[in-house]
Write a structure and sequence with these properties.
alpha/beta, globular, 6 helices, about 25% helix, binds iron/sulfur cluster, 6-stranded mixed β-sheet
């Protein structure tokens, strides 16, 4: 008898954030968690990662961050490394396995959506799956530049702000791609209403980013290690300037944030 392989996708019910989607919209999320950046030691799965995002990655938020005393890893992190090794060993076979899991979920008949890059940033994998499954909704966060070129009718991208890509964030907004910003707002407290004049929606209510209106900042509260360290990756609300203009750059003159997202 052949042993059944463990699924690569994790179901939304087992993840605090995607569980909210199940509750709010009765839609399950199939989410893929790999070992981020070069955590598996085989090469990066996040080519646009920054030093701060690697340090504060959600990989160690929630159950992924719970270690037995004296340990530096746990079963969740090791499973992510195993999946990452499978990806690097044979990327095409890996995509086929993911695709077969999406087929199985489709046959089950319950509504679901797919997030390929839970803790990675692999546009080719996501785009291939989105094109093989045009009737399935996909969404992702990304740090790769020019995200608007990779959006599809069934694939919504949110561009993630880091400590060093502020100008690219406003460029993404101007092209109709929402931007995720991590604030130092505490759990249970309200996020700022705007970020440099752009309306902020609460991204912690649900992870279903394709439901957000266009032309907004998706505000996230710092989680995991990001809650306790000072980093340019996390925006300090108290430091936000009172005026509504983003930090001045030459590109300002070419972009009109009043129209951000509305043309898309
Ligand atoms: S790009 Fe995203 S998944 Fe990769 S290390 Fe940075 S925060 Fe983590």
């Amino acid at each position: 008898m052949t042993a059944r392989r463990t699924a690569l996708f994790t179901r939304g019910v087992s993840n605090a954030k995607t569980r909210k989607g199940l509750k709010l919209a009765d839609v399950d999320t199939l989410i893929l968690h790999l070992a981020p950046a070069n955590a598996a030691g085989l090469g990066t799965v996040c080519a646009s990662a920054t030093p701060e995002c690697i340090k504060l990655c959600l990989n160690t938020a929630g159950r992924g961050g719970i270690m037995a005393k004296g340990q530096t890893t746990n079963a969740i992190l090791e499973a992510r490394k195993r999946r990452t090794r499978a990806y690097f060993a044979d990327p095409a076979a890996f995509v086929d396995r993911l695709s077969a899991e999406i087929d199985r979920a489709t046959r089950r008949g319950r509504p679901f959506v797919v997030r390929v890059n839970g803790t990675s940033d692999l546009p080719k994998v996501a785009l291939e799956l989105a094109s093989r499954h045009p009737d399935v909704t996909f969404y992702d966060y990304t740090k790769h530049a020019r995200p608007w070129e990779r959006q599809r009718a069934n694939y919504t991208l949110v561009f993630s702000r880091t400590e060093s890509n502020e100008a690219a964030c406003f460029e993404a907004l101007a092209h109709g791609v929402n931007v995720a910003v991590v604030f130092d707002t505490k759990r249970g407290e309200a996020l700022p209403a705007t970020y440099y004049g752009v309306p902020v929606v609460d991204g912690d209510i649900t992870d279903l980013r394709y439901l957000d209106p266009r032309g907004v900042v998706v505000g996230l509260r710092a989680k995991g290690r990001a809650r306790t360290v000072r980093s340019g990756f996390v925006v300090r609300v108290a430091d936000l300037p009172p005026n509504v203009c983003p930090p001045a750059r030459a590109s300002c003159r070419r972009m009109n944030l009043m129209d951000a997202g509305r043309a898309a």
